[in-house]
């Protein structure tokens, strides 16, 4: 949101009685202080008029984002103690509707059935100050991404895949990923350049209200493009380094990322189990406070066989169509956290692209479908949330996204807790608080079966426990109220590796976390029903210490 005016009221204004309040005089000294404040931000401040409250309205030299004008207001008050308040003269509408020409085609933001419920979220957040890493094919310069792209990096270590004549370097631009028939293996088809990363970046943060093209979900966030995919895809090792670097970690031989990303968008994947390399990189990113958002995949199969969507600690996103039901191609399963619009049938997700069929051409726009398109919707909403409350943890962001997601209006089995609701998620972030600490209780042995599970009845409880032997397993029972999300966090000793699982009352696995030695495991499980539902939390020995001293761990349970 932008404005070209600021309201200033002085303390010696006369209060309103039966008529207008009297505005205080703007003396030469007062005007000089206002001017000096404006100079700090490259803004000219000129008198316009007074209003009924006794305040003055000043014009600025052009429209500025509200965050900039808020900073100007704070500077004015710091320079002149006679100011009662200064604030942006905001432009109000019935909701924050973008003026971008293709906005009317972006059903995935606004549709009452299948959309993200985005416009009213913009009244509270547009993503200012948040950096989102798009770990993808790189980016093409595009007029609708002008000013949105920060310095990125090309992590493709093989020139043949990179298609740019070299290995890793600081140029994250996308030269194209077109391939000839058979180039990616016997029988592989020919295909043109996808410009995939450019499309994803546009959904996250395309410029908005610029009378051009499309709108972005978090249009005042910034994008760090991180290139990992080229001809025929990209290596896990390159992707792992990209995850580490994007989130502020150190990668040998690569300059430090000056723009650490709070949100990592990974619209990529393959089949198989989550590999240790990727899981380790994700663990590191989470430890640095970054949220990792991953596409579930487009193979219409259980996500348990799709990596990195099946890794622990990520927000896995399924795709829905305009009806709000599962898109025909979308992967599904208990490891999916939430869903978002990805397009299906005749309705696609429109975003920024390039017209080149092989090498780069001109700017254009196109509709794509896939969980790759659903994922940046969620990454963008996470950026909106961080903009309102930067101290949120990755677990809190995931929990809020899941607990505020709206019910599916059509069939979407295995699609998580619902369709992400941008407005509800931002409201949760604005009003969210750290859950109060509950009691600390000791584990009660023997609790090795569902029937002998320790009952935990108070939210915020910390359980102190231990793995008595390498064959030990511990169960804890929570009767989860309707509409609540259980968050279970297990922290082992520095050299121990225990794993965490959550089951329903029938013993069906609902979620798991299998991080390495010394790493905490976290699993969330939502009760989307209308009655209390039992959850069983299980801790299992994998390696490391045992016994009352070496086998210690803590389990925190909140809902």
Describe it for me?
The chain has 559 residues and is of the alpha/beta class. It has 3 domains: 87 residues, Alpha-Beta Plaits (2-Layer Sandwich); 320 residues, Peptidase S8/S53 domain (Rossmann fold); 119 residues, Jelly Rolls (Sandwich). The chain is built from 11 helices and 25 strands. The strands form 6 sheets. Strands 6-7-5-8-10-12-13 form a 7-stranded parallel β-sheet, sandwiched between helices. The longest helix is centred in the C-terminal third of the chain and has 18 residues. The radius of gyration is 26 Å and the shape is globular. The two termini are 35 Å apart.
How would you summarize what this structure contains?
This protein has 11 helices and 25 strands.
CATH level 3 topology of the largest domain: Rossmann fold
Total number of beta strands: 25
Pick out the low-confidence regions: 92-96
How widely separated are the two ends?
A: 35 Å
What global shape is seen?
globular
Question: What's the arrangement of secondary structure elements?
Answer:
Layout: E1 2-10, H1 28-40, E2 45-50, E3 56-65, H2 66-79, E4 83-88, H3 107-110, E5 131-136, E6 153-154, H4 159-162, H5 196-205, E7 222-227, H6 236-246, E8 263-266, E9 270-271, H7 276-287, E10 291-295, E11 306-307, E12 315-320, E13 338-341, E14 349-354, E15 363-368, H8 371-388, H9 394-404, H10 422-431, E16 440-442, E17 454-455, E18 461-466, E19 473-480, E20 485-492, E21 497-504, E22 509-513, E23 521-526, E24 533-543, H11 547-550, E25 552-558
Parallel strand pairs: 5-7, 5-8, 6-7, 8-10, 10-12, 12-13, 16-18, 17-19
Antiparallel strand pairs: 1-3, 1-4, 2-3, 9-11, 14-15, 18-25, 19-24, 20-23, 20-25, 21-22, 21-24
Helix pairs in contact: 1-2, 5-8, 6-7, 8-10, 9-10
């Amino acid at each position: 949101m932008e404005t070209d005016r600021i309201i200033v009221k002085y303390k010696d204004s006369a209060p309103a009685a039966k008529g207008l309040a009297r505005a205080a005089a703007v003396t030469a000294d007062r005007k000089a202080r206002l001017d000096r404040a404006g100079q700090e931000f490259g803004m000219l401040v000129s008198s316009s008029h007074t209003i009924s409250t006794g305040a003055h309205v000043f014009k600025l030299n052009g429209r500025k984002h509200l965050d900039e004008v808020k900073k100007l207001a704070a500077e004015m008050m710091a320079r002149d103690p006679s100011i009662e308040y200064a604030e942006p003269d905001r432009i109000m509408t019935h909701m924050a509707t973008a003026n971008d020409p293709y906005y009317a085609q972006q059903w995935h933001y606004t549709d009452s059935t299948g959309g993200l419920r985005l416009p009213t979220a913009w009244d509270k957040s547009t993503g200012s100050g948040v950096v989102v890493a798009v770990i993808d094919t790189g980016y093409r310069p595009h007029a609708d991404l002008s000013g949105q792209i920060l310095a990125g990096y090309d992590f493709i270590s093989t020139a043949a895949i990179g298609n740019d004549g070299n290995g890793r370097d600081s140029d994250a631009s996308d030269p194209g990923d077109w391939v000839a028939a058979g180039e990616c293996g016997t029988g592989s088809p020919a295909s043109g350049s996808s410009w995939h990363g450019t499309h994803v970046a546009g959904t996250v943060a395309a410029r908005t209200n610029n009378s051009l093209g499309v709108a972005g979900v978090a249009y005042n966030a910034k994008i760090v493009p991180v290139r990992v995919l080229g001809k025929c895809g990209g290596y896990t090792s390159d992707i792992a380094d990209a995850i580490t670097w994007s989130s502020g970690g150190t990668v040998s031989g690569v300059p430090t990322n000056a723009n650490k990303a709070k949100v990592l968008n990974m619209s990529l994947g393959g089949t198989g189990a989550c590999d240790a390399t990727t899981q380790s990189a994700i663990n590191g990113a989470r430890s640095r406070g970054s949220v990792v958002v991953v596409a579930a995949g487009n193979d219409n199969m259980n996500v348990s066989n799709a990596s990195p969507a099946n890794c622990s600690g990520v927000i896995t996103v399924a795709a829905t169509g305009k009806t709000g039901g599962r898109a025909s191609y979308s992967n599904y399963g208990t490891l999916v956290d939430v869903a978002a619009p990805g397009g299906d049938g005749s309705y696609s997700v429109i975003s920024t692209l390039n017209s080149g069929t092989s090498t780069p051409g001109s700017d254009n726009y196109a509709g794509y479908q896939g969980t790759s398109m659903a994922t940046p919707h969620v990454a963008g909403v996470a950026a909106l949330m961080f903009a309102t409350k930067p101290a949120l943890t990755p677990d809190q962001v995931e929990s809020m996204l899941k607990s505020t997601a709206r019910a599916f209006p059509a069939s979407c089995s295995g699609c998580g807790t619902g369709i992400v609701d941008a407005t509800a998620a931002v409201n949760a972030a604005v009003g969210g608080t750290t859950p109060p600490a509950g009691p600390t209780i000791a584990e009660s042995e023997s609790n090795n079966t569902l029937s002998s599970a320790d009952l935990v009845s108070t939210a915020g409880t910390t359980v102190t426990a231990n793995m008595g032997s390498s064959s030990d397993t511990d169960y804890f029972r929570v009767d989860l109220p309707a509409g609540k999300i259980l968050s279970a966090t297990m922290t082992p000793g520095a050299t121990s590796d225990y794993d965490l699982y959550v089951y329903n009352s029938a013993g069906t696995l609902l979620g798991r976390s299998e991080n390495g030695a010394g790493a905490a495991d976290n699993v969330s499980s939502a009760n989307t029903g209308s009655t209390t539902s039992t959850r069983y939390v299980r801790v299992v020995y994998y390696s490391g210490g045992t016994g009352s001293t070496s086998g210690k761990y803590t389990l925190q349970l909140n809902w």
